Amino acid sequence: MAEPLERNNWLAANPNVPIVVADVIFETIALLDRGEPVLPLFADVAGRHGINVRQQMTADVLCTTISRILTISEMNRRCAILAALPGSVRIAVASPDLPMPLRGRPNVIHLGYIDDFAEIRRLMARSRIVLNCTNKFPDGAHERIWYGMAEGAVVLTDASHYLERDFVHGRDILFLPRDGDLTEITQEVTALVSDPLRLSRMVNASRPVYAANHTWRSRLETLFALVAP
C-alpha cells in the first residue's frame, strides 16, 4: 500500500503536469465510487474542463492517465477504509509499505510484501474478512474475491453489476458503499468480526454460489462455449 494522495501533494510531486489535468484526474477519482466505467467518466469530466480526449490526448497519454486515476483511487480508498476501522478490528496488511495513517496502530500488523501467492491464500484462510478494493471492473470482478471465498472468508469488495447478479450485501458478501460514506460499512464490519455465527452463515452462503458459478473451471467452460465451432 502506498501513501494516500490528494490533488495538491500529487501536483507538487508532478510539477510538469498542467493544473487542469490534475483537476480532471482528482475530480474523476472523486466520482469513481459510483460504480461507473472510468474511461467515459474521465472523458465527461475532461470535457467539462474544455479537454477533448479524442482530439487532444494520444493513446499512450490516455492509458497512462487512466492507470494513474485507478491506482490513486484504489490506494486512497483502501487506506481510508482500513483507517476508519476501530482498534477492536485486527488488520493484517501484506504490502511493501505501510501508509502513515495506519502506522503506530496496535491493531495493524504489517507483513511486508509477500511474493508467494500460496502464502497469500493461507493468510486469507486465517482471516475473517478479506478486503478487495478495486473499482477498475464496474461490470466484472477480481480474482481476490473468488480466492477469498474459496479460503472461507467473508469478502468486502466494491460492488459491480456482475457481482450483484449472484450476491446480496449482508447475506453472502459485503459491498463497499457507492457514495463514499464509510460510516455504516465500518460499523457493519466491526459488528461482524465479533459475531462468529453470522460470519459462518455468510461464508456458508457464499461458497455454493462461488463453487457453482465462479471457479476457473466454470470460466473455462464459458470460454469454450463461446469459441467452440
Q: TL;DR of this structure?
A:
The protein is 55% helix and 8% strand. With 229 residues, the chain is mainly alpha-helical.
Description:
With 229 residues, the protein is mainly alpha-helical. It has a 3-stranded parallel beta sheet. Helix 7 links the parallel strand 3 and strand 4. It is globular.
Strand content: 5-15%
Radius of gyration: 19 Å
Helix content: 40-55%
Content-based structural category = mainly alpha
Q: Please list the strands of the largest sheet in the order they lie side by side.
A: 3-4-5
The total count of helices amounts to: 11
The N- and C-terminal alpha carbons lie at a distance of: 45 Å
The poorly predicted ranges are none
State the order of secondary-structure elements, H for helix, E for strand: HHHHHEEHEHEHEHHH
Shape: globular
**Biggest β-sheet: count, sense, barrel?**
3 strands, parallel
Average pLDDT confidence is 91
Beta strands, count? 5
Which helices and strands appear, and what pairs or packs with what?
Blueprint (H helix, E strand, L loop, with lengths): L6 H7 L5 H13 L6 H11 L4 H4 L2 H26 L6 E3 L14 E3 L6 H9 L3 E4 L10 H8 L3 E5 L2 H6 L7 E3 L6 H11 L2 H18 L2 H12 L2
Parallel strand pairs: 1-2, 3-4, 4-5
What structural keywords apply?
229 residues, globular, mainly alpha, 3-stranded parallel beta sheet, two-stranded parallel sheet
